[in-house]
Design goal:
It is a single chain. By secondary structure, this protein is of the alpha/beta class. The chain folds into three domains: about 100 residues, Cobalt-precorrin-4 Transmethylase, domain 1, CATH 3.40.1010; about 80 residues, Rossmann fold (3-Layer(aba) Sandwich); about 90 residues, Cobalt-precorrin-4 Transmethylase, domain 1. The protein has a four-stranded parallel beta sheet with strand order 1-12-10-11, sandwiched between helices. Helix 5 packs parallel to helix 6 and helix 9 packs parallel to helix 10. The longest helix has 15 residues. Bound molecules: FE3-S4 cluster (F3S).
Amino acid sequence: MEVRLAKSAGFCFGVKRAVEQVYNQAENGKAIYTYGPIIHNEEVVKDLEQKGVSVIDDDSLSSVKEGTVIIRSHGVEKAVCDRIQEMGLECVDATCPFVKRIHRVVEKESTAGKQIIIIGSANHPEVIGIMGWSSTPAIVIETEEEAEKFTLEEEKDICVVSQTTFNYIKFNKIVEKLLKKGYNVGVVNTICNATEERQTEAREIAREADVMIVIGGKHSSNTRKLYEICAKECEHTYFIQTLADLKLELPESVGLVGITAGASTPNNIIEEVQNYVRINF
Ligand code: F3S
């Protein structure tokens, strides 16, 4: 029986990089804070807590007197970075370089007088962060209807960017609507394909697999999506959080067991499941 683990299972490049930076900083023995949970995974956050890493938010930041504050991969508004530095704290910016690129584009183009439009969800932390790099108020558009209704009060050129995890097809449809309005629109496609790659690979493995295991948090929407994709292709698809949930009943003749994991599933959990399946079946 073959066990095939998706190469794109688990953390993407940006999250992996951010988590590693927190673990590295935690070794220094200084007080370490992350601005928001570094990833949405309770086990990782708990493990970091034991190593002296606390999670803070905008309110609790005021009470921090010394130490290092780490910015997570989503990034934050410019004002947050400035505030941390003004407080005399050390700021370690673990913003994903793909998100940082959006910050730079937005800062530059808004300073040059362009209207910034961000295609994404207005309440997503990444989008809130991006908005905070625009020198003039940015506009967020999430749906085609919103794009349809959009008008610009002032005569201005427009610069369009996207939340990194936005759906590419939806992004194109919204851009098309904006272009039809006759404005001078410059579009910078800032979608990151880590999510899509993970989904495509999961689909391909599930198509061939007799059993498919999807690992990730119950409340993680990207893991749920992975599960749905795999369940469509493979009748015996399991959704588990950790190895403890795995009650594997293999059909009689199993040639291939596929494994994938959501974006916030740490490597050790993936490996545990993989080893268990390899050894026990
Ligand atoms: Fe991950 Fe960075 Fe893409 S955090 S999803 S690699 S934008």
